[in-house]
Amino acid sequence: MTTEEQEFIVEKKEDGKIWIITLNRPDKRNALTLDMMFDLEDTWKEYQADEESRVAIITGAGDKSFCAGADLLTPPKVQRPGPFRIPTFSPEDVWKPTIAAINGHCIAGGALIAHDCDIRIAAEHAEFGVAEAMRNMPASWVRDLTLHMSIGHCMELVLWGDQRVSAQRAYEMGFYNRVVPADKLMDEAMEWADRMLYLAPRAVWNFKEIIKRGAYMEPKLARIFGQALEQNLRGMEDSAEAGNAFREKRKPIFKNK
Fold first, then answer.
1. Distance (Å, rounded) from C-alpha 30 to C-alpha 33?
2. How far apart, in whole angstroms, are the C-alpha atoms of residue 141 and residue 37?
3. In what order do the strands lie in the sheet with 165-166?
4. DSSP secondary-structure letter at 99?
5. Where are the alpha helices (DSSP H) in the chain?
6. Per-residue pLDDT tens digits for 51-108
């Protein structure tokens, strides 16, 4: 299968530390077929389990669309046994960092992918929207948008789902971390990814889990949970390496050991 025929592409850079996942159906606005959803779920699980991976970037092919959501017209190629289910394992379930590089329309299920990532960087021309109310489709995940923006902004996006907002407006609402010119999008995403290579991976994973889980906990319980989780840092070689690097005025070389 050629690159043009693959529905999504996984590239690994920096000796496998940086993964770039590209949704590759530009002629279909990178909409997700059911097969792609299952393949993408498997990819996130592989990224989580891979001992070398540190950070992943997900983007869309072309310059018009990041992801327009689910493909409602294309039937699945693979018939799966058992009861029907929609893949649920996503960047939200991965304790390693994830970045969405949003190169165009970010609609419905595409908005969900972006939401599930830790950092969202958008091209200036990207449009954002939650369109499920137009199609009478479920979108229980929209409750989590309140972690990024005010309830009023959530209502604007979700209840008035026939409207798309500009990248700048989504940034003002608190959804995007950065808005950059389209030709600088992947450079910006790679800069964020490169920074991750010089941070202690176990500490980063801990902090992500503390933030994600703690957002739904009573504050004192969240603090107790975090303190219990980070006991896994005790006695690590990386802790000694951090001190050595500081004394020697160099960047540390972390091995997650």
1. 9
2. 16
3. 65-67, 105-107, 127-129, 165-166
4. E
5. 34-49, 109-116, 132-135, 151-158, 167-173, 185-196, 201-214, 219-229, 237-248
6. 999 999 999 999 999 999 888 788 888 777 666 677 788 998 999 999 999 999 998 8
Look up tokens 């294309």; give the residue: 74
Contact 143, 132 (CB under 8 A): no
Three-state secondary-structure class, residue 101: strand
- Across the beta sheet with 55-60, the strand order is 8-13, 18-23, 55-60, 98-102, 119-123, 178-180
Residues ≥6 apart with Cβ < 8 Å to 110: 30, 60, 65, 66, 67, 68, 69
Tell me the per-residue pLDDT of 188-245, one tens digit each, with 9 for 90 and over.
999 999 999 999 999 999 999 999 999 889 999 999 999 999 999 989 999 999 999 9
Q: Is the pTM of this model over 0.90?
A: yes
Q: Please determine, for residue 31, whether its predicted confidence score (pLDDT) is greater than 60.
A: yes
